[in-house]
């Protein structure tokens, strides 16, 4: 009887062991071997059709190849293909030699070096706009309404170098330079004088607060290139670093951008702003609101800057800049509008409208209003990059 029970127990154990060895779970506990069928199943099936055992084994093959003892010997006919489509048959000549298909590839087989190039993300962008405009007016000496001949030229350069890491930080830099000269037959003293003169830098450091709102620190600095003159007058009314204005403000930025990106820009609201004004020529101090015989003036206030660009069509753009600074005792408002129409990549026409109000300085001549206005219309060359 004991021999009968021993025989039955031994037979049952062998059957269970054989069934478990034939199952997929056995591969997880047996000595680790590379099985090509695992790779085939992983690559030919989606994630829903992959078995847990195949995923575990594939992870071990990739992460710890040193644990694999040897490969399972598989006949070439059993390897299958990685694609469900059968490759087309090849027509071979008698001289064609085919190397035997290896049954497996050893993990330690020598491989050719792979040239791997890793590029760092580029967060900086550069943009530039260049304009050279010409204006001309001719009136004959016997013209019944009289008048004078005039010629003028205007060059404009706008450079932007901005940083955006597509997360929370932005650092924008804009340098604007405008210089225009004109000559008029009515001016017998000055052969040339400036019609437009500006050097302005705007720098902003932004950190995202919520969606399109950012904490912002803005630095604004501007002056001009050369002397400012009037017709038939040798007196200098402004000059390089006379005045020079530096404004530092702390507040919030709102980034404007429509879905079609036709309208975009920023709105800067700063309840805290420090304003510094400097004149190199002391004789120009009073004309710039600075105490006589002084070079500098400092004050605190609040500031608002709106910078927007709207393109209703591809060739037409309107750039507007609204700037306001107040100490609650005096107010400065500037509103620059530049409407540009591009005929092609190199030819454009510009309409510039610039109203300005400043009650911190006295009018140049008695009876003049504090509201100032500058306007020009030009045609010439343009280039953007």
How does this model look, in words?
- The chain has 385 residues and is mainly beta.
- Helices cover 13% and strands 48% of the residues.
- The chain contains 5 helices and 16 strands.
- The strands form 3 sheets. It has a 12-stranded antiparallel barrel with strand order 3-4-5-6-7-10-11-12-13-14-15-16.
- Strand 12 and strand 13 (316-326) form a beta hairpin.
- The longest helix has 21 residues, at 2-22.
- The chain starts with a helix and ends with a strand.
**CA distance, first residue to last residue:** 99 Å
Give the assembly state of these chains: single chain
Q: Which percent range describes the beta-strand content? A: over 45%
List the helices and strands in order.
Answer: HHEHHEHEEEEEEEEEEEEEE
Indicate the structural class: mainly beta
**Uncertain ranges:** 77-98
* Helicity level: 10-25%
| Biggest beta-sheet profile | 12 strands, antiparallel, barrel
Radius of gyration: 39 Å
Number of helices: 5
Task: Count every beta strand, where a strand is a DSSP E run of 2 or more residues.
Answer: 16
Spatial sequence of strands, sheet with the most strands: 3-4-5-6-7-10-11-12-13-14-15-16
Shape by Cα distribution: elongated
Average pLDDT, all residues? 82
């Amino acid at each position: 009887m004991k021999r009968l029970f021993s025989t039955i127990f031994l037979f049952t154990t062998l059957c269970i062991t054989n069934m478990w060895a034939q199952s997929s779970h056995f591969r997880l506990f047996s000595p680790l071997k590379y099985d090509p069928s695992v790779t085939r199943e992983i690559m030919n099936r989606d994630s829903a059709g992959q078995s847990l055992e195949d995923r575990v084994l594939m992870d071990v093959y990739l992460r710890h190849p040193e644990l694999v003892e040897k490969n399972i010997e598989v006949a070439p006919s059993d390897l299958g293909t990685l694609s469900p489509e059968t490759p087309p048959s090849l027509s071979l000549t008698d001289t064609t030699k085919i190397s035997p298909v290896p049954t497996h590839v050893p993990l330690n087989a020598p491989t050719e070096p792979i040239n791997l190039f890793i590029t760092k993300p580029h967060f900086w962008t550069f943009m530039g706009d260049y304009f050279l405009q010409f204006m001309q007016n001719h009136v004959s000496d016997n013209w019944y309404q009289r008048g004078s001949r005039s010629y003028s030229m205007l060059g404009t350069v706008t450079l932007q170098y901005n940083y955006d890491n597509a997360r929370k930080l932005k650092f924008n830099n804009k340098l604007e330079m405008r210089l225009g000269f004109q000559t008029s037959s009515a001016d017998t003293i000055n052969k040339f004088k400036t019609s437009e003169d500006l050097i302005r830098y705007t720098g902003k450091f932004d950190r995202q607060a919520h969606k399109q709102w950012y904490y912002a620190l803005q630095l604004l600095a501007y002056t001009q290139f050369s002397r400012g003159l009037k017709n038939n007058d040798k007196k200098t009314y402004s000059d390089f670093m006379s005045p020079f204005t530096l404004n530092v403000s702390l507040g919030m930025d709102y980034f404007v951008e429509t879905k079609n990106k036709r309208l975009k820009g920023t709105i800067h609201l700063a309840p805290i702003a420090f304003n510094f004004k400097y004149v190199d020529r002391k004789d120009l101090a009073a004309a710039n609101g600075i105490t006589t015989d002084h070079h500098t003036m400092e004050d605190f206030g609040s500031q608002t800057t709106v910078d927007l660009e709207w393109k209703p069509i591809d060739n037409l753009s309107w750039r507007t800049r609204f700037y306001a600074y107040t100490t609650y005792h005096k107010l400065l408002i500037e509103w620059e509008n530049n409407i540009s129409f591009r005929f092609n990549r190199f030819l454009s026409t510009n309409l510039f409208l610039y109203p300005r109000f400043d009650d911190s300085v006295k009018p140049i001549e008695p009876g003049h209003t504090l509201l100032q206005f500058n306007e020009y219309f030009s045609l010439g060359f343009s280039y953007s990059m």
